[in-house]
Structures are given as structure tokens and as C-alpha cells.
Amino acid sequence: MSEWTRHDLLDLKELSKEEIEMVLQTAKSFKEVSARDVKKVPALRGKTVAMLFFEPSTRTRVSFELAAKRLSADTISIAISNSSLNKGETIIDTAKNIEAMNVDLLVVRHSCAGVPHILAENVGSSIINAGDGCRSHPTQALLDLFTIKEKLGKIEGLNVAIIGDILHSRVARSNIWGLKKLGANVTVCGPSTLMPVGIERMGVNVSYNVNDVIKTADVLMLLRLQMERQKDKFLPSIREYAKSFGINSSKLKDAKKDLVIMHPGPTNRGVELSAEIADGKYSVILDQVTNGLAIRMAVLYLLLGTKEQAPVSG
After folding, report:
1. Which pick of 124, 126, 225, 304 has the fewest CB atoms within 10 Å?
2. Domain assignment of residue 130, yes or no
3. Is the peptide bond before 191 cis (omega within 30 degrees of 0)?
4. Predicted confidence (pLDDT) at residue 279 exceeds the cutoff of 90
5. CA 253, CA 269: separation in Å to the nearest integer?
6. 272 and 261 inside one domain
7. Which residues pair with 273 in a beta bridge?
8. Does 280 lie in the same domain as 149?
9. What is the arrangement of strands in the sheet containing 185-189, beginning at the earlier edge strand?
10. Residue 157: what pLDDT?
11. Are 192 and 165 in contact (CB under 8 A)?
12. CA-CA distance, 205 to 185, in Å (whole number)?
């Protein structure tokens, strides 16, 4: 594949292996830019990027804002609580009004699955899905793929275990699509009450025993236990979950020496991971945050940049 042709980034399910690899390769160039003394490049000078976040976010929102600014784009951050949505305006009308101000791209996060897709069908600006319900979070998966390849040198043939609340996780779903397209063997592991019915149809193995998956895993990807959903009684207790599925040093005694442990954040220390593991030699959690900036710079550049604007131009 010689050039990027997509107008939006909505889901990894729709991307080809070649398109995913193009994002990763472009991100590699932008990571080198971020290591310079002067970290700003003019690749998106004159472009405007709007942040439309209907859910709380720290890492993703800050990462997108910083990525746009390092590419010299102008940024707008919409305060949803103070917007016309509270006066009855529809999301589509809000997006169209923002677009009417000559905004080139909207970064959208929403608690309802499908909202970024609906906006992509109704506005001319490019749309990046920054997370929609339990469905998809493509840039998180891309930064995870980038981090795995950076740490282990490849993705094809690796054994990747995704552990935790698979049922409610958009991160799990996007990672499964990306990992499978790049040739990884994927196992999902968690309580039966937090395992989607029919998840095997995505081409993954299913396990309910974390000790079994650790023995063969090259990568452990821990998911945040969504405390806000526990009122629905998916688990007997948080303590019981941590005992069965939380990762601590005793559970890693038979792990591979070059094991990589990941977490999309925010981390519930003492639940998904003990503090010693979260800060230990296997953890690449902070590398994921660093690589998230490079990935989001790459995605913004591929969607809005021109052929004349090289990623690493000064």
C-alpha cells in the first residue's frame, strides 16, 4: 500500500493489515520527532482539530490535543456541559455547527456505541473515534500494537492474553481485531460473567484460569475493572476478582523472562495489578502513554496531511 486513502478512523475492524502497518510506521517517525529539543513540526499548519468528548478522559484527550499542537494544528476543545446539547440540540447538529466554522477533523468519544459512525455519515469533516461505548477504541489498540512491536520486535506468532472485563471493554475488541490482522494468537481470560457470549467468533481462545494463560503468554494485557458497573453484580466482590484475576509476583513465577505487561489505564492498583508489577520490569504502561502520542500524531497526519508535508520535516 503506497498511500493512505481513508477519510475517517472509526474502527480497526475495517482497516487492512497494510493500513495498520502504515500507521505504525508513520508513528515511528513521529516518535523520533518527539525526542528532539524542538518537538513541533508544521505538518498540519492551517488545519483545525476539535475535541468532542462526551465521556471523562485524561490520557486520550490530552494525547490528541498535544498531538495536534505538535503538528501545528489549531485545536478547539468543546465543553459538553456548557454546550447547546443541554438546550436540546442534537449531536449531529452540534457537529455540523462546528464543521461550519471550517473545522477539518472531529475527535469524538461517546458512551453510546456508533456515535462516531453516525457523525461520519452526516458531516464532511474527518472523524476519529476516540472510544464509543463498549464497541471500539482504535487508537488505543494501535498504540498497544506499536508498543508490542517495539518491545518484542514482532507481533506475528506472539501469544497475547487479554485479561479482565472483556464484556464491557472497547479496548479488548479493538485489540482483538488488530492483533488478529497482524498474526498474533489471542486468548481472552476473565470471569464467566464478564465474558461476551460468542466471543470465540472473533477468532480468539477463551480461558477462565489466569494461571494457565500466564505460562504461555508473551504479552499480558490487563483491562480496567469498571467499578461503575459493579452495581450490576457481575462479581461477588472486588477482592474476589483481585484474588482470581489480579496479577502479582507470585502468579508470574512461571512466566516468560521477556514477558510484556500492559494496561490501557487508569489502573486500579491492587485489583488488576499489584503495585510492584505495575511499576516493575515487565510493565510497559508508561511506554504505552508515550507511544499514544506518536500514534495519534500519525493518525492525524494521515487523515489531514498532504503529500508535500513529510512527517519529520522541520
Report:
1. 124
2. yes
3. no
4. yes
5. 20
6. yes
7. 247, 269
8. yes
9. 205-207, 185-189, 159-163, 219-222, 260-262
10. 98
11. no
12. 8
56 occurs within a structural domain: yes
pLDDT tens for each residue of 159-169: 999 999 999 99
Is residue 263 domain-shared with residue 294, that is, in the same domain? no
Q: How far apart are CA 158 and CA 179, in angstroms?
A: 9
**DSSP string for 83-105:** SGGGGT--HHHHHHHHHTTT--E
pTM: 0.94
Distance CA 297, CA 280 (A): 28
CA separation, residue 80 to residues 54, 91, 128, 216 (Å): 6, 10, 17, 45
Claim to verify: residue 147 and residue 24 sit in the same structural domain: no
Number of domains in the chain: 2
Residue type, 200: E
Count of CB atoms within 10 A of residue 234's CB?
18
Euclidean distance between CA atoms 70 and 237, whole angstroms: 44
The answer to whether residue 159 is domain-embedded is: yes
Q: List the domain range (segments joined by +) for residue 69.
A: 12-136+290-304
Count of C-beta atoms within a 10 Å radius of residue 208: 14
The DSSP string of 125-177 is SEEEEEEETTTB-HHHHHHHHHHHHHHHS--TT-EEEEES--TT-HHHHHHHH
| CB proximity list for 182: less than 8 A, separation 6 or greater | 17, 20, 21, 145, 155, 156
Interacting residues of 112 by C-beta distance below 8 A, sequence separation 6+: 132, 133
What are 83's three cell numbers? Answer: 454546550
pLDDT digits (tens, 9 = 90+) for 243-259: 999 999 999 999 999 99
Instruction: Judge whether 225 lies within some domain.
Output: yes
pLDDT of residue 249: 95
Question: Do 72 and 17 belong to one domain?
Answer: yes
Whether the CA torsion 174, 179, 181, 182 is positive or negative: it is positive
